Fold this sequence. Notes:
mainly alpha, 9 helices
Amino acid sequence: MLATRARHNPLLPVILIVVASSFGTAMSLHIAPGILGKTIYLFCHLLMLAVPLIWYVWMERGTIKISPPKLKELVAGTVLGLLIFGAILAAYWFVGRNWIDLESIRMRAQQAGTGNASIYLIGAIYFSFVNSLFEEYIWRWFIASKCAIIIPGIGAIFLSALLFTLHHIIGLAAYVDWRVVLVGSFGVFVGGAIWSWSYLTYRSIWSSYISHILADLAIAIVGWQLLFGG
């Protein structure tokens, strides 16, 4: 009985995903930027995609099914997304643009291969529509639901938001100073909490996915202004 419980302990896959996300980001941006770091990041990302599915199907004997979005989920996601969209642009306009070193961030973008406008647009579309779906699958469908088992109630929302924020802190630190890291990380935490609440309320990723798309589009607009604006 004890062995069975240990095998089904939701802490195990949660820790594995959190470590993979943080380690992959640190390797690609700080420790070994270049081919090695990107290879490790890709491996960690694939691991993060595989663990939830393997755990759900093999350990929990679940069945994969995709339910169409309901109108209330679409409305909630759009409203929340527009609020976050506006908050991100306002934070950049009133605070962020005065704190960010344009020369430094443009140099880092060139080193990362995103300094070209066409490449940036392709990346922005990918992160806004594809990567955001992956993140909702990983961090809301799986992590938030497991956090609800570990800490039932509102604690699950804050725990999943905190875990979601960790690798973003590492990523932000590679491009901007501590003030922007602090404000940006707080924004990521708030967004993660909103999306976790949406998932745990509707038990569907549709509302959080739509909201996430709008948030990432706002970030893409800010990034475009930083890299290619006047």
